[in-house]
Amino acid sequence: MLRSRYARIALLAVAVVAVQLGAEAAGKPFYLTQLTMAAYYTLVAVGLSLLMGFAGQISIGHAAFFAIGGYASAALTTADLGPLRGKALVDLLARAGALVPRTDVFGGEVLSVHPWAAFVAALALAVAVAFAIGIPVLKLTGHYLAMATLGFGIIVHSIVLGTTSLGSADGLGSVPPFPVLPGLMVGGGKAVRVENYYVAWGLVAVAMLLLTNLVRSRVGRALRAIHGAEDAASSMGVDVARYKLFTFVVSAALAAVGGVFMTHFTATIGPGEASVMKSVRYVAIVAVGGMGSLWGTLVTSAALNFLSLRGVFGTLDDAVFGGILLFVMLFSPDGIVRLDLRAALRAARGRLAPPEEAA
Amino acid sequence: MSLELVLQYLVAGLTYGTIYAVVGVGFNIIYNTTGIINFAQGEFVMLGGMTAVTLHAFLPLPLAIAGAVLVTMGVGALIEVTFIRWLWKPSVLRMIVITIGISILVREAALHLWGEQVRALPYFTGDEVTSLDLGGVRFSPQVLWSLGVCLFIVVALWAFFQRTRVGRQMRACAANRDAAILCGIPTRNLVTLSFVLSAGIGALAGAVVSPITYTHYGIGSGLAIKGFTVAVLGGLGNSFAAVAAGFLVGILESFSVWLLPAAYTDAVSVTVFLAILFFRPSGLFGSREIARLKAY
Q1: What is the ipTM of this complex?
Q2: How many A-B residue pairs are in contact by the CB < 8 A criterion?
Q3: Is A325 in the B-facing interface, judged by CB distances under 8 Å?
Q4: Which listed site, A3, A15, B131, B146, has its alpha carbon 20 to 30 Å from A245?
C-alpha cells in the first residue's frame, strides 16, 4: 500500500493532521511550535538525504546554507532603507513593490525589503554560493570532500560570528512575519500557531513531492547509477559532474528555504544555526534515516528535532547527536530505519500473516 | 608596518604554528599506518592541556605534564580499541564520520568534566610579564619552550621511525600494509600504537602551549581542521613537510589580523585550505604523480 509516493504523501498529511488534533486533545498545543521548527530543519535533512543517499556526496556544511538563507532574509527585511530614499536602486525597488514601509518595535517608521523579495534574494544567494562552492568541491572525494564541506561551514560560521552588521554573537532579531498568502503569516506568535504548523508541514509535503518525483525521474536514475559505480555511469554517458552539482544546488536551496522560514517564524537567527555541530546533526539525522531513504530521513528528523527542541536531551543534546552518528556509522552505516525496521516488520508480518497471504 | 612589528607577528605566528604543526604530524602518523583521517586529533591537544592543568593542582609541573601525556595516550589507545580496531575495511568516508562522532563525544565529556572555563598552565619560566628581548622584539620565554618541544617531538619521531625496529615496522605498514602483514608485522597493534603516539605528541604540545594560547573544552574541532590544512599543505603523509606547513599557516593567520578583523582568523586559514584542495591537492611539497596514485 505504501509503495506509491502519493499514498505516502497522503499518509504524511493524515499524520500531520492527527498530530495537531492529538496535541490539542492532550492539552499540549505548545508542542506545535517545536513541531513547526522541526519541519524547517526537516527541509534541510531531506535535501541532504538526496545529496548523501542518491548522489553519494557527503556535506558536513549544510547548516551554512540554512544560515545563508536565514541571515540574508533577516538582514534584508530588518535593514532600514528609509535614509537611502532618492538613490536610484532604492527607488527602483520601491517602484517595483519590493520595499514596504512598516513600524518597528520602537514605533519608528522603517522602509525595508518585502519578505517575498527578500526570500527570492536569499534563495538566489544560496544557489549562487552552492554553485560557486559546488563546482570545485564536488571534484573531491572521500575525506577531502568531507573536510572541504566542513571547512566551508566553518568559513560561513566565522563570517556571521565576526560581522557586526549581522549581529555577531547575538545574531539578528525582530524579523517581521512572512506573509505567505494574504492573511496567512509565517511567524506572528502563539495566536497563529496552528496556521504556522500547517504552513511548515505543507512546505515539507511539497518538498517531498518534488524530491520523490525527482528520484524517480531520469535525474534520479542517473544519480543512482553514479552512486553505484561512478566510472560505469560516466562511461554510459551520464554527465557525472553536472548531476552531482545539480543535486548539491537543490539540497542547498531546500536548506536555504528552511532557513528563511525558520527565521521569520522565530523572528530571530543566531550564529549557532551555522555551527559545525548543526551540520553534523543533519548528517546524523540522514545517517539514522538511512542513506537514500527520504521518508526515513523525514521521520527521523521530525522525531529527533522535536525531542531536541523540547529539551528532552538536556545538556547532553550535542552528545546525543554525536553518539547517534557514531553508533549508526559503526554498526549500520546504511541507516537504522532503512535496514533494521523494515527487516523487523517483514519478520513480524511473516509470523502474523496467514500462509496464503504471505506467499 | 615597522620591522619590529613584522617580527612580533612572526613570533606570534610561530607559537600558534607549533601547535598546528604537531596536530598535522599527528594526522600523518595515523594516516600513514591506517589511511584514516582522525578528526579527533584536535581533542588530544585539548585533553593534554586540560588534564595537565588538573594534575598540576597536586603535582609538580613536569610530573603533571607527563601524567597528562600518559592519560591522553591511554585515551588514544581506548578510542582505537573501542571504535576502530574491529572494523573490517571501512570506507574512508565512514571512518571520517566515525572520528567526527568520537571528537564530539570527547568534547562533550570534557565539557561535563571541566565546564566551560578557560584554563592554562602557569608559565614554565617566569610569569606572564617576563619577556626576552631579541633585537627589539619582545617575547615570552614560553615561546622558546613551545618551539623547543616541537623540535624535540620532530627529532624524537624521526629517530623512532628511522632507528627503532617498531618504527621501521610502522613505515613498512605505511608503504604496503598487505606486504607488512605477510612479513609477520603485527599491523593491528601498530595501528593502536599510531593512535597512542599521535595522542601523546598532541597532549604534550597542548600542555606546553597552554600558558600562551589557553585551553578549553571546545578547541579541538578548530585545531583538527587547521591540523588537516597543515597536513594537506605539506602533502598528506609527509610528516616533516607538515611542520613547515604548520609554521606557514600560523604565520599567515597572525599576519591576517593586520588586514582583517581578528574574528575572521579561522576563515582565513580555512580559505587557504580550500584553495589548496582545489588547486594543488598534493600539497606544496608533495609530488603530483604520487598524489594521483593515492586513494582520495
Answers
A1: 0.88
A2: 120
A3: yes
A4: A3
